[in-house]
Amino acid sequence: MASAAHTPARTLYEKIWDEHVVQDKGDGSCLIYIDRHLVHEVTSPQAFDGLRLNGRKPWSISANLAVADHNVPTTNRSSGITDPISRTQVEALESNCVESGITLFKMSDLRQGIVHVIGPEQGATLPGMTVVCGDSHTSTHGAFGALAFGIGTSEVEHVLATQCLIAKKTKTLRIVVRGRVGPGVTAKDIVLAIIGRIGTAGGNGYSIEFAGEAITALSMEGRMTVCNMAIEGGARAGLIAVDQTTIAYCKGRPFSPKGDHWDQAAAHWQTLHSDEGALFDKEVVLDAAEIQPQVTWGTSPEMVLPVSASVPDPAKVGDAVKRSGMEKALAYMGLQANQPIEQIRIDKVFIGSCTNSRIEDLRAAAVIVRGRTKAASVKLALVVPGSGLVKAQAEKEGLHTIFLNAGFEWREPGCSMCLAMNADRLEPGERCASTSNRNFEGRQGQGGRTHLVSPAMAAAAGIAGHFVDVRSFA
Amino acid sequence: MRAFTSVTAKVAPLDRPNVDTDAIIPKQYLKSIKRTGFGQYLFDSWRYLDPGELDVPVASRRPNPDFVLNQPAFRDAQILLSRENFGCGSSREHAVWALDDFGFRAVIASSFADIFYNNSFKTGFLPVALPAEVIESLFEELAATPGYQLTIDLPEQVVITPGGLRHRFDVDDFRKDCLVRGLDEIGLTLQAGDAIRAYEARRREEAPWLFTA
Ligand code: SF4
Fold first, then answer.
1. C-alpha A223: how far from its chain's center?
2. Could you tell me which residues come within 8 angstroms of residue B27 by beta carbon, excluding any fewer than 6 positions away?
3. Is the ipTM of this complex over 0.85?
4. From CA A151, how far away is CA A292, in angstroms rounded?
5. Rounded to whole angstroms, how far apart are CA atoms A445 and A348?
6. In what order do the strands lie in the sheet with A171-178?
7. Tell me: the pLDDT tens digits for B61-81?
8. Which pTM value belongs to this model?
9. Quick check: A40 and A92 in contact, CB under 8 A?
10. Which residues of A touch B30 (CB under 8 A)?
11. pLDDT of residue B189 exceeding 90
12. How confident is the model at residue A5 (pLDDT cuts 50, 70, 90)?
């Protein structure tokens, strides 16, 4: 064994990777072991079919945890799912879980919720793990110092059958956010500002480690918001070093280790950070003090600006591909060049999604909404907690009453209007202040127009009827 | 899995960066629990003027005549040419299934989102990344040449233009081998079953808290 003095300095990514290599294939790809596999209804049915077709069984049943989230209704659930196509998909998940013995949180279970909210909440996501799910926002779990990334359905089948994946080490990118953000500036604004800087392809081929005081000062909820959107910056995985905040969050959760195992685990987790002097392939530095509340104006998360700015003018852009992209985006979004962002009026508000549906997010929105009323011009303001447990906690704190009194709707947990696979959606041309993570064309409903913002900014827009700077919204 | 060696086919241009998987196959079609039949919904909201659902027959809908794949010249294209960050967004493998089911065998772009890139190989579909300048030149040639065709030779790792220019592209040996021979990756991994079990035994010692459930 090499002594510590001879071990080369490694990044957090390299440490987790090294611990999970089962076999090196010699061409840069490795067979890596997967500790946790989260399963949902949309990307798994064809994988279970594939297993059956080949007469294969799950390799390790207990490594899997399943939940239906994308298709579930957020209104009265006592009568089940009325849309027959959605129902079929949720039922397929249920029968696949029954057949294979995989634990499933059913729609009626208090623990049901968005897969990326319930994993951490249950302690099913732990530091140092490899975590995968047939969903790109699996990057969320990197907030725990876990190597977590999204996979496609064929890989879901591969993990079910072998508990492994064939993967290639990514390059590493460290993004350092120096100093502290000002009041009213949240984790969502930090990550939107990062994507504005590096672009949506900036992280292609990299895993991002987020570091710096502004990141370590975040709660676990805030860190999950940041890592959630690593994929929007093109990186498959985002990571944040383990510290006392991480360890304290994990303690006492249903799937977390107990007793001696806890002590052993916590001791190991203390080592899950990049070593002094570890080399990253690339580094980007941002100044936290310069980050303002952010609003996207286009159809890609990189099309983002501070709330005080105006919609950009394609005529001022030299690069032809970029200019035509901007023109397409402005046409789709129904916006004029040079229009101040604060003058953009909205039709709907969506507070929810795996980016911003945790208890802190709801608290931040409730602070803004308290004692106020939704603008009459706003047709719908939806608040959708990330899980049944988040919902119960919010109700204990009386947050639901604050929202309901202001004319906001208080719903059952699920993905909801983040991707509009259930009944919650935008109509063509409708404009939404949304706390979700994607503003792609049609994402929240065909022809719908999405502006990504923080929960406080979404709440403020719902009250004012247009975007406003939360910092001056006293 | 279907093997991929080489293809010579007509090319369709999709001249925009960041073509996301929501655009390739919108979410309402992900409710299908099958792996086939997605080609008719490929690029659905660009391709049709009216909205679609899984239970609405596409024959009853109005195609958008301006959309490239609705133009007779490109209907039988098997290679798609696009710009940077192709396949970004959602991890849905349905995006690859839709491209494949429509009749495409490969996409050439200046860069790909990682998950889409990975997913492609599992369906015998080839993503080819070439430098942005080369992509630019291919768009120009395509615009100037009716019936423009390219050859993609995977064993040789080259894209060959009608003028005989050979553009080399990168691909991992393992992925290439699986694709050229049409191998079942899961079957291959299961052959390493002893190595997986040995790894698990070691991890039970090192990190027992991972194995308590
Ligand atoms: S909330 Fe949105 S982004 Fe998150 S898992 Fe659900 S659909 Fe995907």
1. 10
2. A419, A420, A421
3. yes
4. 33
5. 12
6. A237-239, A206-211, A171-178, A282-287
7. 999 999 999 999 999 999 999
8. 0.95
9. no
10. 42-43, 70, 421
11. yes
12. low
Q: In this complex, is the C-beta atom of B186 within 8 Å of any C-beta atom belonging to chain A?
A: yes
Q: How far is the CA of A353 from the centre of ligand 1 (A)?
A: 6
A420, B173: Cβ pair inside 8 Å?
no
- Distance set, CA B190 to CA A166, A167, A270, B13, B71 (Å): 12, 16, 34, 40, 46
**Facing B189 at nearest CB: one of A71, A162, A325:** A162
Query: Rounded to a whole number, what is the largest CA-CA distance in chain A?
Result: 69
Average pLDDT on A414-419 reads 93
C-alpha A332/C-alpha A451 separation (Å) is 12
CA dist list (Å): A470 to A454, A458, A463, A474, B33: 10, 9, 11, 8, 43
Interface mutation vs chain B, best among A116, A324, A446, most B CBs within 10 Å = A446
Q: Residue A8: CA atoms inside 13 Å, Cβ hemisphere, count?
A: 6
Number of Cα atoms under 13 Å in the Cβ half of residue A306? 9
Q: How far is B45 from chain A (nearest CA, A)?
A: 8
Cross-chain CB nearest to B213 (options A170, A255, A443): A255
Q: Contact, A147 vs A15, CB < 8 A?
A: no
**Separation of A91 CA from ligand 1 center, angstroms?**
20
Q: Looking at residue B1, what is its pLDDT?
A: 80
In order, the DSSP letters of A334-400 are T--TT-BGGG-B-SEEEE-TTTS-SHHHHHHHHHHHTT----TT--EEEE--SBHHHHHHHHHTTHH
Is B194 part of the contact surface with chain A (CB cutoff 8 Å)?
no
Q: Tell me if B183 sits within 8 A of B158, measured CB to CB.
A: no
Residue A27 and residue B189: Cβ atoms within 8 Å?
Answer: no
Look at residue B212 in the predicted model and tell me its pLDDT: 75
Chain mean pLDDT for chain A: 95
CA angle A53, B38, B34 (to 5 degrees): 25
CA angle B55, B59, B63 (to 5 degrees): 110
DSSP H or E run through A306 = strand A304-306
Chain A positions in Cβ-Cβ contact with residue B28 (cut-off 8 Å):
421
Return the residue in B16, B18, B157, B200 with the most chain A beta carbons within 10 A, the one to mutate for interface testing. Answer: B18
User: CA-to-CA distance for A50 and A158, rounded, in angstroms?
Assistant: 10
Q: Which residues of A touch B51 (CB under 8 A)?
A: 428, 446
Distance CA A238, CA B141 (A): 39
Residue B42 pLDDT level (bands cut at 50, 70, 90): very high
Rounded-to-integer distance, Cα A358 and Cα A339, Å: 33
Residue B158 in contact with residue B164, Cβ under 8 Å?
A: no
Q: How far apart are CA A233 and CA A203, in angstroms?
A: 5
Instruction: Give chain B's mean pLDDT.
Output: 95
Averaged pLDDT for residues B135-149 = 97
- Given B26, B112, B190, which is nearest A442 (Cβ)? B26
One-letter amino acid of A402: I
pLDDT tens string A50-83: 999 999 999 999 999 999 999 898 988 888 888 8
